[in-house]
From TrEMBL:
One of the protein's GO biological processes: mRNA splicing, via spliceosome
Basic residues bias (residue ranges): 1-11
Database matches in Pfam families: GCFC
Cellular component terms (Gene Ontology): nucleus
Keywords for the protein's UniProt record, in alphabetical order: Nucleus
Domain GCF C-terminal, first and last residues per copy: 65-127
Family: Belongs to the GCF family.
Signal peptide region: none
Molecular-function GO terms, alphabetical: DNA binding
Gene name of this polypeptide: Gcfc2_1
Annotated region (Disordered), positions in chain: 1-43
The protein, known as: GCFC2 factor
Domain of life of the source: Eukaryota
Keyword Nucleus: yes
Amino acid sequence: FVTKYRTRRRQARECSGEADHHEGMSSDDELTPTEATEFQKSKDNVLEDSRKIFEDVHADFCDIRKILLKFQEWKEKFPDSYCDAYISFCLPKLLNPLIRVQLINWNPLEQNCTELEEMPWFRAIEEFSDAKNVSESK
């Protein structure tokens, strides 16, 4: 099916006289202006909806740094119950939705893309991990 589709696109390009296509290059990513506009509109809608996801959540529970601070306080005040709760296994599942929302617009293929290590959520987790290692060494 894919070969037939590509053959039809090649024939359509030949008939229309498009000169900007280079043989051997994929035309799968070529979008018509209408498709590009529709894609951008859909993308904008998704981004707008993503901004609303946590709007009714208390600020202490939608900020990764604040959540991790709560866990750090728990660990320092009640280390036995913290350890018994297997928090290290729970944190990835707990933080996953928050991180995913922040990554919705992230595209590693863009030239001006922010590296993962530079994102605030990554640094917060890194600091939490460092604090964890320091307290364990004590």
